Amino acid sequence: MSASTSHLMRVRALYKGILKLHRGLPLQMKALGDHYVKEEFRAHKEAESAEVAVFMQEWTKYYVTLAKQLSQRKQRQEVGQNLSPQMLDNFSEEQLGQLHELFKETTLTEPSSQDESKPKS
Hints:
Blueprint: H1 3-22, H2 27-43, H3 49-71, H4 85-89, H5 93-106, H6 113-117
């Protein structure tokens, strides 16, 4: 088996594993997470080998962290982790922009039922 075939198999296994883990998330988080993962993996198809190594390492960490968090059966399940200032310092402007957009998406509040029931004038 060639090195590129082996690499492709590892990438696909990680991708499928992440999507499978997302099944354990609340519906809205799953949809957002699935979309983000698909976009990121698609965007890195033609990346340089050094960037691919970091990409795979970070997504593997995500997989392991999420698997641990989802395996802890709690009434109120919490997922995710805070990013360290050192990690944020290594982000590009584009990555910081993506992170901000992701933050906005995940912190949107739905209109309350009272607002929806008010008559429109």
